Amino acid sequence: MNKEILSTLFVIGAAICFTYLPMTCHQNLSNNNIPLSLSPFSLSPAFSSSLSNRKSNSSRSLSTRYHLSPPYLSLSVADMDGGVCPSLYPLHRCKTIHLVRHAQGIHNVDGDKNYKAYLSPEYFDAQLTPLGWQQVDNLRKHVQESGLSKRIELVISSPLLRTLQTAVGVFGGEGYTDRMDILPLMVANAGNSGRAAISSLNCPEIIAVELCREHLGVHPCDRRRSISDYQFLFPAVDFSLIESDEDVLWKENVREKKEELAARGLKFMNWLWTRKEKDIAIVTHSGFLSHTLSAFGNDCHPLVKQEICKHFANCELRSMVIVDRSMTGSDSPRTNYPGNIPSGPDLPSDVADQKIKKKDGSNTNSLV
């Protein structure tokens, strides 16, 4: 099929989209059933996993293609030919997020052998295993050696014991020594860890956020204890964003729907734009990551989609870039420079060319 026929088909398709998509979006919104594709930001891996395949695996823009008014439809010869093209965004409209799944918890060990173990009250708010703490130590070493520890400005943790232990163990300070002016991030032997206290000196702020909790309901391992208990175990962690001391979200007989979990994940991603920090580590859970990330990468190369959505191992860290395309929370650029200081004539030749054309209708194409 030649390009002329393809072009005609795409124009017809565009007309249909512009006619019916706004109506569909309006109906979905009126029913409180917001499509995941309406997310006003995009997400992509921060680094390519295969340099040798960079040309063949280059992704299209991961920005979702539907807006409420008007919908965005990108049509080009490259798209028609199945080609790919890069995306370009202002740096100050981007954030780098470093997604971390918690280290191995005691529930993971028996749950790997028998799924019903996740239903056992024995694993209420499961803590890390000794192997899990080894995983924490290894990730901490990687974060320091790679330079990430100097870049990360904020750490966000799900308010469960295993994620808090992972967050303070990986991103916290060194060993804590008693002093009046500094609180420890974690007290000694928190959650029967057998670990020494961890200092809050020389490390980014760590805050607990309910939105990035694991799949809610039924599984006791995903039920949190009271915030007052956590504040005793993790004195320097900020729990101020959590409104209820007791866990009012977890239900014994009601499991959160997958669609609800995915929507919660997108709400969390949108909330990130209320933060001024640009490099943010997020310590969370497998279910939360899987259902949240599944909403992204649908308009890119299948291998990039796979890279975004693949299952997280315990204590795995994966860096991604999110882009604000809606002006929701973008801040002023830090690195841009206005130029023309001191000021002086700086009329570009192409602008002068256009001015001359408008003035006398000439066909000047060679101004320099």
Describe this structure in words.
One of its GO terms (cellular component) is cytoplasm. May play a role in carbohydrates metabolism. The chain is an alpha/beta fold and 368 residues long. It has a domain at 92-324: Rossmann fold, CATH 3.40.50. 34% of the residues lie in helices and 11% in strands. It is built from twelve helices and eight strands. It has helices at residues 3-30, 54-57, 77-80, 106-113, 130-145, 148-151, 161-171, 227-233, 258-271, 286-293, 302-309, 349-360, and strands spanning 41-45, 94-101, 154-157, 184-186, 198-199, 205-208, 279-284, 317-324. The strands form two sheets. The chain has a six-stranded mixed β-sheet with strand order 1-8-2-7-3-6. A two-stranded antiparallel sheet has the order 4-5. Helix 5 (130-145) packs parallel to helix 7 (161-171) and helix 9 (258-271) packs across helix 10 (286-293). The protein is globular and about 85 Å long. Residues 14-38 and 48-82 have low confidence and may be disordered.
Secondary structure blueprint with pairings:
Elements: H1 3-30, E1 41-45, H2 54-57, H3 77-80, E2 94-101, H4 106-113, H5 130-145, H6 148-151, E3 154-157, H7 161-171, E4 184-186, E5 198-199, E6 205-208, H8 227-233, H9 258-271, E7 279-284, H10 286-293, H11 302-309, E8 317-324, H12 349-360
Parallel strand pairs: 2-7, 3-6, 3-7
Antiparallel strand pairs: 1-8, 2-8, 4-5
Helix pairs in contact: 5-7, 9-10
Per the principal axes of the C-alpha atoms, what is the gross shape?
A: globular
* Major β-sheet annotation: 6 strands, mixed
Structural class estimated from helices and strands: alpha/beta
CATH class (first level) name of one domain = Alpha Beta
The tally of beta strands, per DSSP, is 8
Catalogue the unreliable spans.
14-38, 48-82
Taking the alpha carbons of the first and last residues, their distance comes to 43 Å
Following the backbone from N to C, one meets helices and strands in this order, namely: HEHHEHHHEHEEEHHEHHEH
How much of the sequence lies in strands comes to 5-15%
CATH topology of one domain: Rossmann fold
Radius of gyration, taken over Cα atoms and rounded to an integer in Å: 25 Å
Strand order in the largest sheet: 1-8-2-7-3-6
Proportion in helices: 25-40%
CATH superfamily of one domain: Phosphoglycerate mutase-like
